Amino acid sequence: ALLVYWVVGRLVRPIFSALAVCATVAVLVLLPVVRQAEQWNRLEYAALHYDWDEVLRIATPGRCKDKPEMMPYALLALGERGELPTRMFCYPIENAESMTLEGWRSHRAYTFQTLLYACTGCYVEAAHRNSMSGTYLCHGTSFGNLRRSVWLYENIHAGALADKYRSILSRSLLHHNWKHAAAPVRSSKPIATENHTDTIPAITDQFLYNMAVLVNEGYVSRPNIDRMLCAALAQRDLSSFMKFMEGVAGRQELATHYQEAILVATMLQPSLSANKYRISASVRSAFQRFSTLMSRHQVQAAKAAFPHSFWSFYFDESNRFPSTNDKRP
């Protein structure tokens, strides 16, 4: 009997131990909180390495509706791909804050804003946001923050500060060789800005104002112009949008959402004319159908017929006021 007990114990006990380990791992992997953390880390990693296709695969419109903190990453990816003025209203945007996490105070928010302002070419503000992101960590910084600090200070030609953070990293076993390389935090550079001044722009918590200031200071690129115009659309600020449009629009055919916004603006302000802008016949025809449905008070039918248009967003009364279900941390 003792021999049988010993043999069974030697055989069964390892099996039960293995099953217990497998069960524990399965529970941890399948826990919603673990899966959400993994999904967020994949999104942040893809964005920091400028893998915009992967960002859009993770931050889908459906996920952004449940997790609004993902939406700025999706909108940034669309902007860098040149698709912001054609696809932004596929996402559940409320206002310009949806593009920036500007009202959020967290490590995640400031990490995103670091990336956003690096994309604009304003590395000074990116360095500021990177420092702010570290203040929300229990140790005041992280290896990721330190690596970004080195890269950002290199870009603003602050060699002494870059060397300072390299020196800190060199004391880490993981980074003792890293100090010998510039080691950028991304795999490709954003579109370069043109002729910007050496003046440090006055950045506020109003994204539309910030983008207008950056473009005015010479941080001019196609993505920056799109971000400025689309921020005006997200704020439903057609007055600013039309002023910006006068300065940037040429005779080329405009992106879809710009055409849609111009038709609304000229309808609401008869003193404005849409004739100097190239607006396609299909957009004009669609706006006529939308206007007809709205004039018959068939609001839901109009929104259903043109669900991802600027028109549906602009005339959506439920989106005109701050959400009562504020998910900001």
Give the termini distance in whole angstroms: 62 Å
User: Could you say which structural class the secondary elements and strand pairing correspond to?
Assistant: mainly alpha
Helical content class: 55-70%
> Stretches where pLDDT falls below 50 for ≥5 residues?
180-192, 321-329
Number of helices, counting only DSSP H or I runs of 4 residues or more: 17
Strand count, sense and closure of the main sheet? none
Please give a handful of descriptors for the protein shown.
329 residues, mainly alpha, flat, disordered C terminus
Describe this structure in words.
It is a single chain. By secondary structure, the protein is mostly helical. It is 60% helix and 0% strand. It contains 17 helices and no strands. Helix 2 packs antiparallel against helix 3 (52-58) and helix 3 packs antiparallel against helix 5 (71-80). The protein is flat, with a radius of gyration of 25 Å. Residues 180-192 and 321-329 have low confidence and may be disordered.
Briefly characterize the structure.
By secondary structure, the protein is mostly helical. It is 60% helix and 0% strand. It has helices at 2-30, 32-48, 52-58, 61-66, 71-80, 84-87, 107-120, 123-134, 143-155, 159-170, 207-216, 222-234, 238-248, 256-268, 281-295, 299-305, 310-314.
Topology:
Blueprint: H1 2-30, H2 32-48, H3 52-58, H4 61-66, H5 71-80, H6 84-87, H7 107-120, H8 123-134, H9 143-155, H10 159-170, H11 207-216, H12 222-234, H13 238-248, H14 256-268, H15 281-295, H16 299-305, H17 310-314
Helix pairs in contact: 2-3, 3-5, 7-8, 8-9, 9-10, 11-12, 12-13, 13-14, 15-16
